[in-house]
Amino acid sequence: MDRNIPSNETIATRYKDAPARTITAGGVSYAYRELGPRGGVPVVFFVHLAANLDNWDPRIIDPIAKGHHVIAFDNRGLGASSGKVPDSVEAMAEDAATFIRALGLEKIDIFSFSLGGMVAQALVAKYPGLVRKLILTGTGPAGGKDIDKVRGITYFDILRATLTGSDPKEFLFFNRNAIGKSAGRAFVGRLKERTVNRDVPVRIKALQTQLRAIEKWGRSAPADLSRITQPTLIANGDNDRMVPSVLSTDLHRRIKGSELVIYPDSGHGGIFQFHEKFAPVAVAFLDR
Question: Residue by residue, what is the 3-state secondary structure of the chain?
Answer without folding.
Answer: CCCCCCCCCECCCCHHHCCEEEEEECCEEEEEEEECECCCCCEEEECCCCCCHHHCCHHHHHHHHCCCCEEEECCCCCCCCCCCCCCCHHHHHHHHHHHHHHCCCCCEEEEEECHHHHHHHHHHHHCHHHEEEEEEECCCCCCCCCHHHHHHHHHHHHHHHHHHCCCHHHHHCCCCCHHHHHHHHHHHHHCCCCCCCCCCCCCHHHHHHHHHHHHHHHHCCCCCHHHCCCCEEEEEECCCCCCCCHHHHHHHHHCCCCEEEEECCCCCCHHHHCHHHHHHHHHHHHHC
